[in-house]
Amino acid sequence: MANILITGSSGFIGSFLVEEALKRELSVYAGVRKSSSLAYLKDPGIHFAELDLTDKTRLKEFFLEQKQNGIRFDYVIHNAGLTKAQKKEDFYRVNYTYTRNFAEALIESDCIPLKFVYISSLAAYGPGDEASMKPVMLDDVPKPVDEYGKSKLEAEKYLKTLPGFPLLIIRPSGVYGPREKDYFVYFQTISRGMEPYIGYKPQILTFIYVRDLVRLILDATVSDIKGKAYFITDGKHYDSREFAAITKKHLGKKTFKITLPLGLVGGIALVMEKIFSLGGKMPTLNTDKFKIMKSTNWTCQVDALQKDFDFRAAYDLDKGVKEVLEWYQKEGWL
Ligand SMILES: NC(=O)c1ccc[n+]([C@@H]2O[C@H](COP(=O)([O-])OP(=O)(O)OC[C@H]3O[C@@H](n4cnc5c(N)ncnc54)[C@H](OP(=O)(O)O)[C@@H]3O)[C@@H](O)[C@H]2O)c1
Fold it and tell me: Distance between CA atoms of 201 and 127, rounded to whole angstroms?
């Protein structure tokens, strides 16, 4: 039975990666930290690996100890990452420096896996051109617009410098699904009868449902393919009004449309960020997120997914939103 180590297992995508890996009968080591919630990691088959990504020496000790006990990680998915941060330095510390610690510890303890999958983001490349509305292509020059995207790109660039490292880079677009907390705020807003738009130009959005994403990531992990990167979407793109229409249909709600001028939302993001910072928190709407929210072209090249992994999404937005809303309702979130 092959061993797989998944960092950030306690989070939204990580917990689904663990489930998918267990389904495939891999021996799963869920990388967590002391403070992580284990609420979605209840399967008795899970081995826990408490990893301190801040400390390369301790990481090396961990890998050497595993090796001594006869455990080698055949596959590693480095999924831990920071998507919201109090300070811009936090993005670089977690997404870049900790990735570097982790990869160096694997190399220096001579525990390089057969495949190292890095969960990056479409944000590392930034949105596509808004005049031509051309999709972001795999061979484009990356142009991240927010600090989060820039930090993910830094990590990608670093990993690519490692000679002979069995790297595969996955760059999902917007990931939604059960347990997710940011799109949830949007669903909640619609369920309360409000339909917000930012700016007057419709946004063209791309999505991937978490169950399709983890299926694809595990297919890619155990495949022979390495040294490549992929953008991940469900293969379609959606106008922001379509996203709202689908949500309203499944919630059975009528809504009041509110279009907020870009300048106003930017101002609110700034004020919210200042208020929340007093309590040491970061609001869902913040200045960095605003840069992402105002971008109108989130289309990207995904044809390689079908070619390399025979991937076809089982969920389009209509089917995925229906399922996720049912989950939020069943769990009492909505
Ligand atoms: N959600 C999306 O739409 C999306 C899109 C593209 C890419 N991604 C990428 O997918 C990955 C997972 O994101 P997610 O949406 O599942 O986020 P999430 O729910 O916030 O999960 C993040 C995970 O990373 C761990 N983590 C965060 N800071 C850490 C630190 N300092 N040390 C160790 N572990 C740390 C968290 O551990 P704790 O539970 O202990 O905090 C958690 O397990 C990230 O790398 C993100 O950049 C997400």
Answer: 15
- The answer, yes or no, to whether any atom of ligand 1 lies below 6 A from the CB of 35, is yes
Question: Domain count of the chain?
Answer: 1
In whole angstroms, what is the distance from residue 255 CA to residue 249 CA? Answer: 11
| Domain containing residue 116 | 3-176+208-234+299-314
The pair of three-digit structure tokens given for residue 218, joined into one six-digit string = 């595990």
pLDDT digits (tens, 9 = 90+) for 222-259: 999 999 999 999 999 999 999 999 999 999 999 999 99
Q: Tell me, using a 6 A CB cutoff, whether residue 8 lines ligand 1.
A: yes
Indicate if ligand 1 lies below 6 Å from the C-beta of 93: no
Residue 257 lies inside a defined structural domain of this protein: no
Distance from the alpha carbon of residue 100 to the mean position of ligand 1, in angstroms: 16
- Determine the length of the chain: 334
pLDDT of 168-190, one tens digit each? 999 999 999 999 999 999 999 99
3-state secondary structure of 208: strand
In a domain? residue 283: no
Q: Does residue 147 lie within any of the structural domains?
A: yes
Which CATH number characterizes residue 169's domain?
3.40.50.720
Query: Ligand 1 centre and the CA of 6: distance in Å?
Result: 11
Residue nearest to atom 45 of ligand 1 (CA): 81
Residue whose Cα lies nearest atom 46 of ligand 1: it is 81
Minimum CA distance residue for ligand 1 atom 8: 121
Residue 239 lies in a domain: no
Instruction: Measure Cα distances from 274 to 82, 109, 268 in Å.
Output: 20, 43, 10
